[in-house]
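Handoff note, outgoing to incoming analyst
You'll be picking up this chain. Sequence as last confirmed:
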Amino acid sequence: MQARSALFDVYGDHLRARGSEAPVAAVVRMLDPVGIAAPAVRTAISRMVMQGWLEPVQLSGGRGYRTTEQANRRLDEAGDRVYRRHLPTWDGRWHVAFVDPPAGRPVRTRLRADLTFVGYAELADNVWVSPFRRAELESVLERAGATARTAWADGFDPEPTGAWDLGRLRSSYDGWLEAADGLVVRHLDAHDDEDEAAFAARFHLVHEWRKFLFADPGLPDALLPDDWPGREAAALFASEATRLKPGTDRFVARCLGA
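Most recent structure output, in case you need it:
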């Protein structure tokens, strides 16, 4: 687990509802049970400040960091998708973005990753499609220095679900269903303190589940087969995350000195 990814998990899953800020020492305490050492935390924080995700703030518990508005938008979008909140109703249309990509190859690569993250797939060269208009499209384009013309398509024949590798995604969900129980038990057994154990187990559960944000575009049920394993996987994730939340909240409160 990379420290930068772990920090996004901490701020998105635990600190977003607590003012989106925390002293560095508290963040270090939270990440210790999941194997992220203090030097790695501090290095990742510095990089996230340079990237515009965090900003320094003086708190009663010492020097700390708060998420920026850019980070809050990304974390809220990710949280809605992780916990399947505010699921939109599909009207049968497709949102199409004709992207004029930036010149630099590294920036283009980052743009492709960001467009995939928010739920678009490349249907043809520089033509991206999604069953919904994603709220973060403009900020993704702006961050990359790119522009796009957009339109709504009433339908495709066949539907462009082939733009996503649904076979690979199915295998990933099947694998997650097989591994999730063992993942939780392993981390619960690794810690003597019950609240710390709950935090570590839930943290790893959410971290692994969050990876589906990069692979699952959140297609409407109407476009998925009846035996789609993502539904069972989502139900299992929600059940385990809810079960582990009370102990997790107590551990976070201890780390924050609340």
